[in-house]
Each structure stands twice: as C-alpha cells, then as structure tokens.
Amino acid sequence: MADVIIKQIMVGGFEVFTYVVACPETRQAVVIDPAGEDEKILSLIREEGFKVKYILNTHGHADHVLGNQQLKKALSVSTCMHQLDNEFFSQKEVRELSAAELGLQPAEPADMALKEGDVLKVGTLEVRVIHTPGHTPGSVCYLVGGNLFTGDTLFVGSAGRTDLVGGSLDMLVDSIAKKILPLPKDTVIWPGHDYGDTPTSTIAREMEENVYITDFILES
Ligand SMILES: [Zn+2]
Ligand SMILES: [Zn+2]
Question: From the CA of 219, how far away is ligand 2's center (Å)?
Fold first, then answer.
C-alpha cells in the first residue's frame, strides 16, 4: 500500500493546483489550496471516501483560497494559514491592494493560525509546516513524507512573483536556499500552479534547471 495518496487537481481560471492528500489506512485527508470548482473537489472526496480534517492554504492570495468558505461549510472543517499571512491579509489597506492586483479578495481570516514547525496529524500522516516567506510574508510549504507542497514559493522551473504586495525576492531566494534545498534531493515538488513542462519535479531536478536556484543560490 502506498504510504500517502496524493490527488493533484487543476482548478479555476488561474490554473491553480489543488491537492487532496490522504492517509491510505484511515482515509483521513487534507485539502491544500481549494481554488474553486468546489463540486469537482467535493465529488472526488466523496468518491474516494476521504475524511477531510483540515483545509490548508499555502498563502493568502485570492486564487488559492477561492473555495475555502464553500468547502469549509460542506466539510465542517477548519481553514489553516500561517499566522503572518493571516495578519497581513486582515489589514484593510493590504486587502484593497491585493484585491486590485489579483481582481479578487484575498483570504478571509483562518480558523487556525500556523507557525514554522507545526505538525498536523492526519491519520498516519504528519503534515509539517515550513515557513517560506518571500512570495508573501506568511507563505508556507507543507511537507508530507517525501512530498513538498510548495504553493507559489517554488514552481517547476521557476518561482513565485515577488512584485505583489508583501513580496520580497531576497526573502524568497533565502527561503528556497535555507528551507527547501536542505531537504532530501529526491523530495517531490508539488507546485501551486502548472507553470512548468511537467506537473511535478524533484529538488534534484530543480537544482539543475531552476534559474532561481542555479543563478541566485548555487552561483553566488
Ligand atoms: Zn500567490
Ligand atoms: Zn498563485
């Protein structure tokens, strides 16, 4: 039996990857970045018999949280986000700027604020929170065994924008260098958008091909 079930679902006009990550033994699961097309996500959960424990957001941008409220209602579970994005996107002026940038409102306040090193138990799985600021102040990656869900921090072949409100290229590069590259090289990267030539990658491959890593980190 596989040690983790991962469903990668492309949803919405922003072509976001929503993930359902489940424990094969207990069918307990988390949804990472429900980004719209709620019925598509819910029918998969029903068909597979998953028991969702948490909705996890990699960050507070509108495109990654579109389905939060509907899924929360349908599944009766808590939404979770890093405390810094929770605070950042609660500020009126930040909400206005972000809505103007992305054309949609950012995240509503989460039910549970996360911090670096938090571990959520989901059946036999452990979901570890790795704080990777840069794309937004409270961006995180979620590590489940050898799988890293990177949101808009790291894509296949590229990395997230840092020109949006709260972004910092220096912090993004620092996060990749200090928080992602030290992980085992065969760690699988599951990005927040389908921007690469493949839907997933590994840290080893990104160290060869991703310019944010080859030019900004390994060269310097
Ligand atoms: Zn984003
Ligand atoms: Zn995004």
Answer: 27
Contacts of 190 (CB under 8 A, 6+ apart): 6, 8, 17, 19, 147, 148, 149, 150, 200
Half-sphere exposure of 186 (CA within 13 A, CB side): 2
Whole-structure pTM value: 0.98
CA of 171 to the centre of ligand 2 (A): 17
**What class, spelled out in words, does domain 5-218 have in CATH?**
alpha beta
Closest CA to 163 of 87, 218, 104, 101: 101
User: Average pLDDT of the chain?
Assistant: 97
Per residue in 78-137, pLDDT (tens digit) is: 999 999 999 999 999 999 999 999 999 999 999 999 999 999 999 999 999 999 999 999
**What ranges do the domains of the chain cover?**
5-218
In contact, 168 and 132? CB cutoff 8 Å: no
The phi and psi torsions of 115 (rounded to 5 degrees) equal -140, 165
Instruction: Please compute the mean of the pLDDT values over residues 196-208 and round it to a whole number.
Output: 97
Q: Regarding beta strands 112-114 and 78-82, do their DSSP bridges make them parallel or antiparallel, or are they unpaired?
A: parallel
* 132 token code pair: 């990777």
Q: Ligand 1 centre and the CA of 186: distance in Å?
A: 25
Distance CA 199, CA 18 (A): 12
